[in-house]
Amino acid sequence: MSKRPAFSVQAPSAVVMVRPHHFTVNTETAADNHFQVAGTGGEDLAPLAHAEITKAAETLAAHGVTVHLFEDESLETPDSVFPNNWFSTHAGGHVALYPMKAPSRRRERRADVIEMLKTDYRVQEVIDYSGLEPDGLFLEGTGAMVLDHIDRVAYAVRSDRTDPIALERFCTHFNFEPMAFDARDDKGAAIYHTNVLMCIATDFVLIGLDMIADTARKAEIVARLERSGRDVLALSNRQIENFAGNAIELQGKDGRILALSTTALSALTPEQREIIEQSAICVALDIPTIERAGGSVRCTLAGVHLTPRG
C-alpha cells in the first residue's frame, strides 16, 4: 500500500493535452534528440497521431482524470503534441512560461491555454521566462526539469535546453532546490531532456542511473530520493530507450495511476511493476507514432497543479 495519503501534490488530477492535425517528426530538433526516428518513408503520420491522442485522452478520462484537450491545426508547430515543455503550473496559483531552443517550438505557446487555466482554476500569477530566448538561455519546462513537488527539488540534466541561469531563476521563483547533473546514453550522446530518464511519483522513482557517469553525483541523487521515502527503481539504458522513464503519476477516480506508453510498460520488469502497483495503477497509452518524434506519454501531458474554481 501507499506510504502517503490518497491525495498527493505530486499527482495532478487534471492535464492539458494538444491534439495535432498535421503531426510530423520535427527535423529542427533532431540534432540533440536521439530518441527521434528519422524519416517517415513518405507515410502520412498526421491521422495516426491524431487518433493516438484521441484515444489516450479518452483512456485518461475513463480513469477519472480531467483532460483539457486543445486542437492544433497549424502547419508550423510539429511538436505541439508535447505541451509540457512550454508551460507548467504550481500549487498556490502559479504558472510558468518557458524559453524554448527551437524557433518552431516557440510558436507552441498559446494564449487560449493560459486563459482556460485562469477561467477554470485559481491563477495568481504567470511568470514568463520566454524573454530569455534572445540571450540563448533555454529551460524547456517539465521536460528539462523533473520536479519533486513533495521534497521541493528540481532535478535537471544539463543540456542546451536546460541553462543553469534559467534553472536558478525558476528555482528561486518557485521555491525548488536545483539538482543539476550530466547524463549520456551508451553511445556517449548527451540526454536532451531530464524527463526521458526520470519519473518521480509519490512513493517511487523511475531513473536511468547508468546514464549518470559521475558516481559521486549519482550517489547524491539516490540518497536524496531515498531520503524522501521513495523506492528508487533503476532503469537500464534499454528501458530508457523504450521510454520507461517518460511516465507521469496522476490522480484518478479510484486512486493514483501511472500513465505511460505501451512501449514503456512492456519494458518494465515484473518486479518493477509490482513495486509501482503498490501505490499506483499502470495505465498504458498506445502512442507509437508520437514516440517517433522523440517523446512519449509524459511529454504529451502538462499536469495542472492548480485549485479548481467553484
From TrEMBL:
Sorted alphabetically, the keyword list is: Hydrolase
Keyword Hydrolase among record annotations: yes
What InterPro entries does the record tag this protein with?
Amdntrnsf_FN0238
Extract one GO molecular function annotation from the record: hydrolase activity
Pfam families tied to this protein: DDAH_eukar (PF19420)
State the PANTHER family in the record: AMIDINOTRANSFERASE
This chain belongs to which protein, by name? Citrulline utilization hydrolase CtlX
The source organism is: Labrys neptuniae
